[in-house]
Amino acid sequence: MKKPARPKRTRLRAPAKAKKRPTLNAKQRKTLEAAIGYTFKDEALLTRALTHPSLIDDYHGGAQFSNQRLEFLGDRVLGLVMAELLITKYPKEREGHLTKLFHTLVSGETCGKVGTGFGLRDYLFFDSSMRNNISGHYDKPVADAVESLIAAIYNDSGLKAAEGFIKRCWVFDTIDTPPRESENPKTQLSDWCGANQAAYAVYTTLNQDGPPHAPVFTIEASVDGHAAAIATGGNKQEAEKAAAAALLEKLDTND
């Protein structure tokens, strides 16, 4: 009787080894940390902050592999720190102008300028196709990595350390700040009233003179309990602006 044939042994293939994730060498790390003014206790946080999501597939990485989650957190930390800085620096500004300044200071363009300032692109880990790919009006991978660095510093040492990085590296004096609406004297006067907890200005037409083709309006601008000023103009709006400007001069002198 024939013995049953033994099943063929199949060789089990070892699973492919995961590629070792890229890291900075000691010299690179030292140079970068000197540039940002912060030394990491946990090197893994720095490595993740520098890892662009284009490498996830190459390294079979998960959600914690690239800097995307850190970027999400860093954006919120930056917003908190920047809002506090603006509130402190501009105690008399109204919310509208603070909001414009805030959006400029936390924008991708500004983050890109910050990272370019200390050569951050040279330290990022990219897919080869991204290495020299700078499209759009600012360097988005660098901007994203700056926010990731903020979060990495925050996770490594807390809010004060992240705030220190922002104060050291942000380009407060070189960015293009948005134009002030308060260049209009009436808006400036409203800002003054809001900052000084005063009633808003009242504009009263005292007189309208001159021929129909060239009228002259006389307007009084007043802030109850503070001061009043009178000015003239070729139309009502022009006269109100002139009266507001004259009143602001009085109010500034009284301050």
Structure notes:
By secondary structure, the protein is mainly α. It has two domains: 26-169, Orthogonal Bundle (Ribonuclease iii, N-terminal Endonuclease Domain, Chain A), CATH 1.10.1520.10; 181-254, Double Stranded RNA Binding Domain, CATH 3.30.160.20. 47% of the residues lie in helices and 9% in strands. It has nine helices and three strands. It has helices spanning 26-36, 43-49, 68-89, 95-105, 108-117, 140-157, 159-169, 185-195, 236-254; strands spanning 202-209, 216-223, 227-233. A three-stranded antiparallel β-sheet has the order 1-2-3, covered by helices on one side. The longest helix has 22 residues, at 68-89. It starts with 25 loop residues before the first helix and ends with a helix.
Q: Estimate the mean pLDDT confidence.
A: 86
Given the helix and strand composition, which structural class is it?
mainly alpha
Q: Give the tally of β-strands.
A: 3
Count of individual helical segments:
9
Largest sheet: 3 strands, antiparallel
Search tags:
255 residues, Ribonuclease iii, N-terminal Endonuclease Domain, Chain A, Double Stranded RNA Binding Domain, 2 domains, 3-stranded antiparallel β-sheet, 3 strands, 47% helix, elongated
Précis, in short:
The protein has 255 residues and is mainly alpha-helical.
Topology:
Blueprint: H1 26-36, H2 43-49, H3 68-89, H4 95-105, H5 108-117, H6 140-157, H7 159-169, H8 185-195, E1 202-209, E2 216-223, E3 227-233, H9 236-254
Antiparallel strand pairs: 1-2, 2-3
